[in-house]
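Deliverable D2.4 — example input (structure tokens):
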């Protein structure tokens, strides 16, 4: 009943259906591989899922980041104005504070606005491939200059405490200018390699990422963070040890000094009715002991203040930047040199935590520096007139209290 001519069409139809199903399955499998493969997803965001924010979330995030940027600009601008306007603050050591403020101010003005726009788009870079290299260069250079200046400030504070007699003689404007120039040249040495062909930054559609080359990553993170942090920790330890020795010596000799002062004072009172030359000599001895006591107390307080200030600076610096640099160092070894497998939300959070260090620096120094606090207060109240006279009067009053 069935001939060959009737069977062949049926078999051909079945073969066509099977081949269509197989082709569809292969296409679906290939599409799944493409969407899940990290390298294939580079067209979007280098293997990362873009964050999808709603309008309320964008408003909240935008306002928060804009406030951080505005406060950073305001605080560092106050530092620059204060040192330039107030004669008492126009000291060579404070030039480092101006360099630090300029670096942090550059981060806030040149870098943060573009990061805010990128974050509000969920992590997508919108400013083109050419500007990507420029942006990464500015970001690396300004942040590195800020970190390196903190390192130089710690060395400056250490030398000022441990060598109070010889260091001020060598501390002049030219020396500070050379140190500041060296800081910015070192920062440029990290910025230039991607422009010279050693390590190329990653910039494809929607992606702007610093070069993930292994050698460049180790070099840049070591020079920009790990070496400065090690130097700051060593300086803090030495200042802390010097302050501790001074404190122990001060407490140990405090009783004997007090007894000698009382003895000389009693002798001076007893000799009041006798020879005037003897009274004069005793009063002179008493004056010398009192001056020596005041000098020792002043040195002790200065060492304690320097140790406390540097301790806070190192602590805040480590909390802000250490997580980001650990992530940056480990990322090429985990994700490879052509991609970032780190979640965008984690990467951006740690980045803004590092930027927060630029916000905190001017307020840390103002907290431990009475003159900066007074100048901030006058500038914010628009009391520009007689700032120098008021600071001089406050300084005389504090000297008389000691």
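Example output (designed residues):
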């Amino acid at each position: 009943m069935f001939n060959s001519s009737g069977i062949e069409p049926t078999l051909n139809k079945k073969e066509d259906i099977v081949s269509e199903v197989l082709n569809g399955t292969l296409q679906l499998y290939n599409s799944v591989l493409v969407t899940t493969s990290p390298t294939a997803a580079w067209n979007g965001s280098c293997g990362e899922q873009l964050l999808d924010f709603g309008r309320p979330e964008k408003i909240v995030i935008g306002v928060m980041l804009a406030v951080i940027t505005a406060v950073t600009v305001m605080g560092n601008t106050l530092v620059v104005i204060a040192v330039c306007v107030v004669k008492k603050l126009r000291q060579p050591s404070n030039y480092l504070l101006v360099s630090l403020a300029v670096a942090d101010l550059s981060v806030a003005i040149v870098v943060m606005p573009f990061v805010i726009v990128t974050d509000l788009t969920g992590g997508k870079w919108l400013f083109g491939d050419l500007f990507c290299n420029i942006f990464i260069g500015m970001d690396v250079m300004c942040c590195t200059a800020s970190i390196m200046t903190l390192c130089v400030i710690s060395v400056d504070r250490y030398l000022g405490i441990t060598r109070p007699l010889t260091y001020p003689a060598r501390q002049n404007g030219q020396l500070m200018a050379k140190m500041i120039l060296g800081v910015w040249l070192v920062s440029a040495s990290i910025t230039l390699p991607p422009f010279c062909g050693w390590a190329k930054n990653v910039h494809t559609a929607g992606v702007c990422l610093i070069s993930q080359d292994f050698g460049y990553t180790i070099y840049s993170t070591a020079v920009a963070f790990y070496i400065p942090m090690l130097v700051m920790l060593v300086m803090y330890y030495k200042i802390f040890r010097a302050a501790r020795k001074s404190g122990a010596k001060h407490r140990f000799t405090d009783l004997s000094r007090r007894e000698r002062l009382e003895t000389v004072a009693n002798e001076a009172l007893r000799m009041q009715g006798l020879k005037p030359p003897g009274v004069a000599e005793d009063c002179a001895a008493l004056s010398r002991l009192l001056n020596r006591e005041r000098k020792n107390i002043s040195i002790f307080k200065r060492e304690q203040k320097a140790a406390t200030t540097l301790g806070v600076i190192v602590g805040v610096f480590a909390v802000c930047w250490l997580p980001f640099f650990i992530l940056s160092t480990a990322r090429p070894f985990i994700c490879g040199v052509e991609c970032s497998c780190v979640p965008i939300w984690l990467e951006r959070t740690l980045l803004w935590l590092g930027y927060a260090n630029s916000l905190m620096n001017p307020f840390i120094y103002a907290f431990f520096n009475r003159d900066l606090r007074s100048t901030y207060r006058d500038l914010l109240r628009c009391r520009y007139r007689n700032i120098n006279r008021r600071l001089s009067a406050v300084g005389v009053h504090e000297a008389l209290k000691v």
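Confidence is low (pLDDT under 50) at residues 1-15, 24-45, 394-402.
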